[in-house]
Amino acid sequence: MRLHRDTIFARERRAGTAAMATLATTVLLLTVAAGPATAAPATEAPSGTTTGEILGTGNATAVPGSYVVTLKDSGGTVGDRQAGVSRLADRYGFRPDQVWRDALNGFSVRTSELVARRLAADPAVAVVEQDRLTSLATTQTNAPWNLDRIDAPLGLSGTYNFTSVGTGVRAYIVDSGIQIGHADFGGQAVYGYDAVDGTLPANDCSGHGTHVAGTVGGTTYGAAKNVVPVAVKVFDCALPSTLSMLINGINWMIANHLAGQPAVANIGVLTSPTVALNTAVTNAVADGITVTVPAGNSNVSACTVSPASVPAALTVGATLTNDNRASWSNFGPCLDIFAPGDRITSAWWNSTTATQTISGTSHAAPLVAGVAARVLSNNPTWTPAQVASYLFSVASPVVINPGAGSPNRLLYLSPTL
User: Fold this and answer.
1) Is 406 assigned a catalytic role?
2) Is 175 considered catalytic here?
């Protein structure tokens, strides 16, 4: 919205009329004296016309005309935050699609680039990012191998020995949904939220989410066999998702996580660095949810992708059966721990007994989520930081070629725990 200022022009002089000259001088003096209270300086730009930078406009998967806005002030009540968004909407003439109060203080909006750039310059706005498509971190392979590697410091025994089973812990699967009728869940899995269309059921129609949920808490393929997998669907059948859809799912998860409820979450996505997604994941951890994320499958530093670069999350790299880091697994100082991630067999979506074998760091991360759930079932009041510290302290330092800057930690939990 442009603000117009009325300006008084006094150009004409009438020669020989001293009274008019005196009057003109008086008017000029009054105008100057009153200036600060009645008009902005001529050099000040009208409100709402200054523009700022939009991050991520050059991203190959950018979604035209869609933006994610993170606001600066995270304090105040829910009503205060909503009022702040409403003021921005009135000022710049847009209608927000989603307003978030838990994942981050911000909103998504479909609008013109000009309006987005004006928003970016507003003092209340921390950053405006171009919405983008995001992908799951998966590579298909064929031959399966057992998950027994995590119950012994060295080697494979052909068995998976355990005592705790994740009882009392909820496991949010932020992914493509879950085939909750699959036999491997034994009736434990439930629908939580569908960010794709906002309505339940959060059925899986691509398989990734069901596979991940099975690795976390399946009775055959899972690390924590009595955990409650909760489907938070952020990917539709066709794939991929968007940044704003991911934040919708995380926002729901935080809002519905009860204080003191032991919980883990596996967020199996990868995208180029984004402030909004990293903030959402950080806030999920701050809410008391132990979050695992894949390091990525590009053999580069995990610090170069989101949400793997979130310090508070457990960023997981992948190893092979011989404890080598998988050649495709990301690495570096943002990585926290390794887990088996090559040729992982788990539940699949297209029948109640189907299985699939998949490789990727997004199939190593849910194994860590499952073990974290077991730790929480024994220590339900522990914070995410305490869970992480414990996993680091008992991990096996046996990873071969972990990569520059990576910690040498392979996931392990004693069978007696």
Assistant:
1) no
2) yes
